[in-house]
């Protein structure tokens, strides 16, 4: 039997799971401009690959901390999308788990912890998001999805 690692194309075509975080502050959401082969120069939520054995909440907290230095709490599952990104230089397929969270300390300020992956983080009004959005986020926004609690 062929080892998966022997065929780079086979490995590249395996769907991956990603957890992304709607980190909310008032009526704003935290976004960063990607520096990546997938979605380069688009605005995206913090998040990343789900690691083996990790819960969605653990992944969300880890990724937000690694990318922005922020600590989060009250993580809540929102929805999941299936994203086949064929228009990218490296086609990809992501099952994207969207969660909502708030800052553990509202006075925290986001830092760009991974400048090789992101141009920086800022808070954007939900009704006036920057463009272009990363395709999975764009899709969910166009569907009319609202990440803010309704209570």
Q: Can you describe this structure?
A:
- This protein is of the alpha+beta class and 151 residues long.
- The chain is 17% helix and 37% strand.
- It is built from 3 helices and 7 strands, in the order αββββαβββα.
- The chain has helices at residues 8-12, 56-68, 135-142; strands at 16-25, 28-34, 43-44, 47-49, 72-85, 92-103, 118-125.
- Strands 1, 2, 3, 4, 5, 6 and 7 form a 7-stranded mixed beta sheet that branches.
- It is globular.
- The N and C termini lie far apart (54 Å).
Write the layout of secondary structure elements.
Blueprint: H1 8-12, E1 16-25, E2 28-34, E3 43-44, E4 47-49, H2 56-68, E5 72-85, E6 92-103, E7 118-125, H3 135-142
Parallel strand pairs: 1-6
Antiparallel strand pairs: 1-2, 1-4, 2-3, 2-7, 5-6
The number of E-state strands comes to 7
Main pleated sheet: 7 strands, mixed
Q: Which value, in Å, is the CA radius of gyration?
A: 16 Å
Instruction: Identify low-pLDDT runs.
Output: 1-11
Query: Helical content, roughly?
Result: 10-25%
How large is the share of residues in beta strands? Answer: 35-45%
Distance between the termini: 54 Å
Per the principal axes of the C-alpha atoms, what is the gross shape? globular
Q: Which structural class matches the secondary elements?
A: alpha+beta
Count of DSSP-assigned helices: 3
Average pLDDT value? 91
Order of SSEs = HEEEEHEEEH
């Amino acid at each position: 039997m062929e080892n998966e690692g022997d065929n780079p194309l086979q490995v590249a075509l395996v769907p991956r799971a990603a957890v992304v975080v709607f980190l909310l502050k008032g009526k704003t959401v935290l976004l960063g401009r990607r520096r990546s082969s997938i979605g380069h120069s688009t605005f995206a939520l913090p998040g990343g690959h789900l690691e083996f054995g990790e819960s969605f909440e653990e992944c969300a907290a880890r990724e937000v901390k690694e990318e922005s230095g922020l600590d989060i709490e009250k993580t809540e599952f929102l929805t999941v999308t299936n994203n086949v990104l064929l228009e990218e230089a490296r086609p990809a397929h992501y099952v994207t788990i969207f969660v909502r969270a708030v800052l553990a300390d509202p006075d925290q300020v986001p830092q760009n912890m991974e400048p090789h992956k992101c141009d920086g983080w800022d808070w954007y009004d939900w009704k006036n998001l920057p463009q272009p959005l990363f395709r999975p986020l764009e899709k969910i926004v166009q569907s009319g999805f609202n990440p803010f609690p309704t209570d």
